[in-house]
Design brief:
The complex is a heterodimer. By secondary structure, chain A is mostly helical. Chain A folds into 2 domains: 58 residues, no CATH class; 237 residues, MetI-like (MetI-like fold), CATH 1.10.3720. In chain A, 75% of the residues lie in helices and 0% in strands. Chain A has 14 helices and no strands. Chain B has a single domain, classed as MetI-like fold. Classes of the chains: A mainly alpha, B mainly alpha. Chains A and B meet through α1, α6, α7, α12 and α13 of A and α5, α6, α9, α10 and α11 of B.
């Protein structure tokens, strides 16, 4: 990886962040609802003075370019502003919510690979057989299914009918482990709190399956095609003709090269999982970044929406950069 | 072209997709003739009745009723309208806008191409769902707002596809001969090049329809799609969440509507791709 390429990517990254910040900022200022009105709804004896004072407090009386300058200035200094609604620094809210989203995304990724990789291998090895066709058919179904609907079907089966699994939040009151990393699974293992661990795991099952299944379909499909490509290459024929067991050739020789495109899938998944679990978080009342952003949009809590969107975008772009770097390490043929 | 369409009919999954799509369009167009009920008005005495699978079924309500006593089948039929309108309109707008910009960018290159391509790079980095939630949160729910919001980012894939194709086409001999016989730039773009890339546009448009309908459903589910009193599949599923204990049919049937529509568009799109793109033909 050349330095020039890295610098170019860094400029691209900055460009993207500036664009998304500006876009979000302008969009929120031209929006029709007034946050001050929304915050004062239901309160009696409100005078014009109250409204003016509140507008001043929130900085909404300043001209547009001053607001933008203050905001940009804050970001550079690491200050993302103050939530109108929850009366706390936005950074605190993000720090508090982010681990929940990460935990869910990691488990969903794990499920998508645990399910997708074996299926992809089988489909490629049994290419064009009935099994392959069946797998690809189910796969198509998986890609076409809305994840939120799949989640509700899972809830209907495993919670409503069978009563096996919880459907709300990350754990139950009194069952949270001591906060160390914010990841409940890690924290409960670190504090040897097995009850907390099982509770947290049970809460993770349905949301992470709902999220992961759609991606397992994508994983299986891409692995199948890259596997098919690898299997047709000469070194596989050589390995087979040396008399190596078919199983060994597939798992040791073919799979290792076929897995390279999985880096892209993993990166793409990590990025979209963090953004895409907005819907799944809403369904399972998961206290992550997704529910924070959706809630803040409805409440017109500008600073939280702005910071949340920019934070998401930053994670997304950084992951993409990591994917490119990982590629050049894994596959020495690729040079930028 | 004609031969290609005949080949499409030899692909069973694509034919299945086509048939389902035709049925869905038919249901959406003739919804008022297919059902005697009003999708928005219900009979509170008839709340949450089960459908044909139960002995308690009420005559005339084959899929049961919802929490306000409205016929579920009627609402699913009308829901197809919204999905198809939003899907078709936003893909059409995206295709025209993205296609035109892509044609110009690929043909003229230069500054114009540089600026748009840079802008596209930035727009691509904005996660789609996040973008739509943000824009819809600001605009407020509504069918036209939704079509606008989706098109605002939806033109990008069309732009990229057309630009790439035009870059390859403009170097070919037929374009050169068109210059030689004195055609002007616009004539070459629209009369010579455009017909040669229409088939890839059709494939992309079909596949995008599926994605857009999924997005419409997702946003309606979050309360950020079409306005709440219009029966849309996504908002029907959202409303059913409080009644899962007593009425499993409320989320199941609208979801099947989404699933079959999107699935058939994907199957049709893949079938068209096999037919039109000889590189992928086995």
């Amino acid at each position: 990886m050349s330095l020039r390429y890295l610098v170019k990517r860094l400029f691209y990254l900055i460009g993207v962040l500036v664009f998304i910040t500006l876009f979000t900022f302008i969009l929120l200022r031209i929006s029709p609802g007034d946050p001050v009105d929304l915050m004062l709804i239901g309160q009696e004896d409100i005078t014009q003075e109250d409204i003016d004072r509140m507008t001043r407090q929130l900085g909404l009386d300043k001209p547009f370019h001053v607001q933008l300058y203050d905001f940009a200035d804050g970001i550079v200094k690491g200050d993302l502003g103050y939530s109108f609604y929850m009366n706390r620094p936005v950074w605190d809210l993000i720090k508090q919510r982010f681990p929940a989203s990460v935990e869910l995304a990691l488990f969903a990724m794990f499920i998508s690979f645990a399910v997708g990789i074996p299926i992809g291998i089988i489909a490629a090895v049994k290419h064009n057989s009935l099994v392959d066709r069946l797998i690809m058919g189910v796969n198509f179904l998986g890609v076409s299914m809305p994840p939120f609907w799949f989640a509700i079907i899972l809830v209907l089966i495993f919670s409503v009918s069978l009563g096996w699994l919880p459907t709300m939040s990350r754990s139950v009151y009194g069952m949270y482990p001591e906060n160390i990393t914010g990841l409940l699974i890690v924290d409960s293992i670190l504090t040897l709190n097995w009850k907390a661990l099982t509770t947290a795991l049970r809460h993770l099952v349905l949301p992470s399956i709902s999220l992961g299944m759609a991606y397992s379909a994508i994983v299986a499909r891409i692995l199948r095609s890259s596997m098919l490509e690898v299997l047709s290459q000469d070194y596989i024929t050589v390995a087979r003709s040396k008399g190596l067991k078919k199983r060994r050739v597939i798992l040791r020789h073919a799979l290792r090269n076929a897995l390279i495109p999985m880096i892209t899938v993993a990166g793409l998944e990590a990025g979209t999982l963090l953004g895409g679990n907005i819907v799944i978080e809403t369904i399972f009342s998961w206290p992550g970044l997704g529910t924070l952003i959706v809630g803040s949009i409805f409440a017109r809590d500008y600073p939280v929406v702005q910071a949340g969107v920019i934070f998401f975008a930053l994670v997304f772009v950084l992951i993409n950069l990591l994917v490119d770097i990982a590629y050049s390490i894994v596959d020495p043929r690729i040079r930028w | 072209m004609k031969k290609n369409f005949l080949r499409l009919f030899r692909n069973p999954t694509a034919v299945f997709g086509l048939i389902v799509i035709v049925i869905v369009v038919f249901m959406a167009l003739f919804a008022p003739l297919l059902t005697p009920h009003d999708p928005t008005r219900g009979d509170l005495m008839m709340r949450l009745r089960p459908g044909l699978w139960s002995p308690l079924v009420e005559e005339g309500y084959p899929l049961g009723t919802d929490m306000l006593g409205r016929d579920l089948l009627t609402r699913v039929l009308y829901g197809a309208r919204i999905s198809l309108i939003v899907g078709f309109s936003s893909v059409f707008i995206s295709m025209v806008a993205g296609g035109a910009l892509g044609l110009c960018a690929g043909f003229f290159r230069g500054k114009f191409d540089d600026i748009i391509s840079r802008f596209v790079d930035w727009l691509m980095a904005f996660p789609l769902l996040l973008f739509l939630i943000l824009v819809m949160g600001v605009l407020g729910p509504g069918t036209w707002n939704l079509i606008f919001a989706i098109s605002l980012k939806g033109w990008v894939p069309f732009f990229r596809l057309v630009r790439g194709e035009v870059l390859a086409e403009r170097e070919k001999a037929y374009v050169e001969s068109a210059w030689a016989i004195g055609r002007n730039a616009w004539g070459i773009m629209f009369v010579e090049i455009l017909p040669n890339i229409t088939h890839t546009l059709i494939v992309l448009a079909t596949l995008r329809m599926g994605i857009v309908i999924l997005m419409e459903a997702t946003l309606s589910f979050l309360g950020l799609g079409v306005s709440p009193h219009i029966p849309a599949w996504g908002s029907m599923i959202a409303a059913s969440r409080d009644y899962l204990q007593v009425a499993w049919w409320l989320p199941v049937f609208p979801g099947m509507g989404i699933l079959f529509t999107v699935l058939s568009l994907n199957l049709l799109g893949e079938g068209l791709r096999d037919v039109f793109d000889p590189r992928l033909r086995k």
